[in-house]
Specification:
Number of helices: 20
Shape: globular
Largest sheet: 8 strands, antiparallel
CATH class of the largest domain: Alpha Beta
Helix content: 25-40%
Number of strands: 26
Radius of gyration: 26 Å
Strand content: 15-25%
Oligomer: single chain
Bound molecules: 2-deoxy-2-amino glucitol-6-phosphate
Number of domains: 3
CATH architecture of the largest domain: 4-Layer Sandwich
Distance between the termini: 11 Å
CATH topology of the largest domain: Glutamine Phosphoribosylpyrophosphate, subunit 1, domain 1
CATH superfamily of the largest domain: Aminohydrolase, N-terminal nucleophile (Ntn) domain
């Protein structure tokens, strides 16, 4: 949460900073600000609200008032202090000598503030204290430079942070520090950069370095110098970004969310690409997950799996549980990552942890995975963003290759995560000898049909839009499902509430009679996941129960279940039969994504930037 960018060495840094903030706005949009310096003074402009408020304020500045070759910017997701102008970043020390932007939480900020004595703070944030502390260190007898002063300050900080600072007295220098919140640095064509995410830098370079925890960097037009807290040279994680600027644009779609929904056939195709082949020496083809890096003999010993994730990724993990238990025969627990390390989970070297995250930067998931690693459990991350913290810190990684996902509401990340889970389930079955090679090959070849089936589902958009028009103002929507329909019911409810702000809940269809059915009254909408399969008859009974109590029912069926559903539901969407029952969720979530999107746009909501949310959640 919160987006940071810094540029030094450009003729006019502010234009580049604003363009970068535009790409980082998904990380928070409570306020935005920028600071530049010319060696005489630091000049700050910051405004509450979305980035357009900042750009409006910048346009009102006198010509050239902020022009400088060095500057830093910030887009905020508020934690400490209301989202107003005063709490917007950057923050300075009382003399305006040092300015800081911050992503994360300085947990000991109260204690640090007290250590400064009787000092007035201009904001209610935890971040401002960093500027005060750095300025104090700059005054020390040995006259440290900005890098040294920042090193001394971070030695005292507790919590998660990526920090970016400029000083009035060092005009061509940006200093950054990273601990448990992402920070990328780069240098290209005489310009130094830093940002929370490569999306902000992709217009300038695709060769970047991710700082590791505890690293501090000085960025100048001449290059990037990385050190540890003691000042010794340190090596960040260098990598090349495989996607380009075009992939990060809307490409004619009204919203990123819609673009990303329609990118799902390609994204799933890319997730499945080149997974089944002989090894370099020939031999029979096998399922190969090259980046997994965990010895097959160790995987064969696994007797328990934990899947840890948050939000949409957690729902993908629920499908993963079904796949792993079905194919590999290993018991699986799926757990909200933020709960895991605060109880006493029983994990050891024979427990495999699968941490699922689009961004690879969700702090709850990173912390849970690291807790499991501390107990010697091997950790595999199922991640979209290449080079992200979770991808780097896990023992092995399976990339989903969905390409950049910008909309806060996750769509293509979800479907590719499910496919990733299916691959992991098959792989575990393979290494444990639970499946004949021909069986694995057959399932993998059937999964290749998913992209075409997805195209067919996307063809239902007009029908779904008509349904959305009908139910735009429904007060309450209940999603129900069984087996692989349950995670999709949960994901459907999450999508609807997060972008349309309508009240929506999901329940296992069989649980309805134990309480939730009391909520049903005439006018309620129930969306029922009812594909053909072993729980279809039970779903039909549950649909009848809610309909008997006055609910309207929209049933998401498949070719083989649709005809029967027509006798029980008000509306039936007939999806193609999935190539495997466990692949069904990849298809059945798409109408729910489109339904939520259409309802939200009809209600006039800001789909790509829903209120109170941010794409990457880097605070606990
Ligand atoms: C869903 O639309 C949200 N974006 C959210 O639930 C998200 O899935 C969650 O915050 C986890 O993010 P991650 O996959 O990047 O870890």
């Amino acid at each position: 949460m919160c987006g940071i960018i810094g540029i030094t060495g450009r003729v006019d840094a502010v234009d580049g900073i604003v363009a970068g903030l535009k790409r980082l706005e998904y990380r928070g949009y409570d306020s935005a600000g920028v600071v530049t310096g010319d060696g005489r003074a630091l000049r700050i402009v910051k405004r509450a609200g979305k980035l357009e408020n900042l750009t409006g304020a910048l346009a009102e500045q006198a010509d050239g008032a902020l022009s400088a070759s060095t500057g830093i910017g910030h887009t905020r997701w508020a934690t400490h202090g209301a989202p107003n102008d005063r709490n917007a970043h950057p923050h300075t020390d009382p003399d305006g000598r040092v300015a800081v932007v911050h992503n994360g939480i300085v947990e000991n900020y109260q204690q640090l503030k007290s250590s400064l004595g009787d000092v007035r703070f201009a904001s209610e944030t935890d971040s401002e204290v960093v500027a005060h502390l750095v300025a104090r260190h700059l005054d020390e007898a040995d006259a440290p430079d900005l890098l040294t002063a920042v090193r001394r300050v971070v030695a005292d900080l507790k919590g998660a942070y990526s920090l970016c600072l400029v000083s009035r007295d060092e005009p061509d220098t940006i200093v950054v520090a990273k601990h448990e919140a992402p920070l990328i640095v780069a240098h290209a064509d005489g310009v130094g950069y830093c940002a929370s995410d490569v999306a902000a830098l992709i217009a300038h370079t695709r060769d970047v370095s991710a700082l590791l925890d505890g690293q501090i960097a000085r960025i100048t037009p001449d290059g990037v110098e990385v050190v540890d807290v003691d000042g010794a040279p340190a090596k960040p994680h260098d990598y090349h970004v495989s996607w380009d600027l075009e992939a990060a644009e809307k490409q004619g779609y009204e919203h990123f969310m819609l673009k990303e929904i329609f990118e799902q056939p390609q994204a799933v195709h890319d997730t499945l690409l080149d997974r089944h082949r002989p090894d370099a020496g020939g031999g029979s083809p096998r399922l190969r997950l090259d980046e997994l890096r965990i010895d097959e003999r160790d995987l064969a010993r696994i007797d328990k799996v934990f899947i840890l994730a948050c939000g949409t990724s957690l729902h993908a993990g629920m499908v993963g549980k079904l796949a792993i238990e079905h194919w590999a025969g290993i018991p699986v627990d799926v757990e909200v990552a933020s709960e895991f390390r605060y109880r006493d989970p029983i994990v050891d070297k024979n427990t495999l942890v699968i941490a699922i995250s689009q961004s690879g930067e969700t702090v709850d998931t990173i912390a849970a995975a690291s807790h499991a690693r501390d107990q010697r459990s091997p950790v595999v991350s199922l991640v979209n963003v290449v080079g992200s913290t979770l991808a780097r810190e896990a023992d092995g990684v399976l990339y989903t290759h969905a390409g950049p996902e910008v909309a806060v509401a996750s769509t293509k990340a979800f479907t590719t995560q499910i496919v990733g889970c299916l691959l992991l389930g098959l792989y575990l079955a393979q290494v444990r000898g639970r499946m004949y090679a021909t069986e694995t090959a057959d399932i993998l070849s059937r999964l290749q049909q998913i992209p075409d089936a997805l195209e067919e589902v996307l063809g239902l958009d007009a029908e779904i839009t008509a349904l959305a028009e009908r139910y735009t103002d429904v007060d309450y929507t209940m999603f129900i499902g069984r087996h692989s329909g349950l995670p999709i019911a949960m994901e459907g409810a999450l999508k609807l509430k997060e972008i349309s702000y309508l009240h929506a809940e999901a329940f296992p269809a069989g649980e309805m009679k134990h309480g939730p059915i009391a909520l049903i009254e005439p006018g309620s909408l129930v969306i029922a996941l009812a594909p053909a399969g072993h729980v279809f008859a039970k779903m039909v009974s549950n649909i009848q129960e809610v309909r008997a109590r006055g609910a309207s029912v929209l049933a998401i069926g498949t070719a083989d279940s649709a005809a029967e559903l027509k006798d029980h539901a008000d509306h039936v969407l007939a999806l193609p039969e999935p190539p495997h029952e466990l692949a069904g969720p990849v298809l059945s979530v798409v109408p729910l994504q489109l339904f939520s999107y259409r309802v939200a746009t009809l209600r006039g909501e800001d789909v790509d930037q829903p209120r109170n949310l941010a794409k990457t959640v880097t605070v606990e």
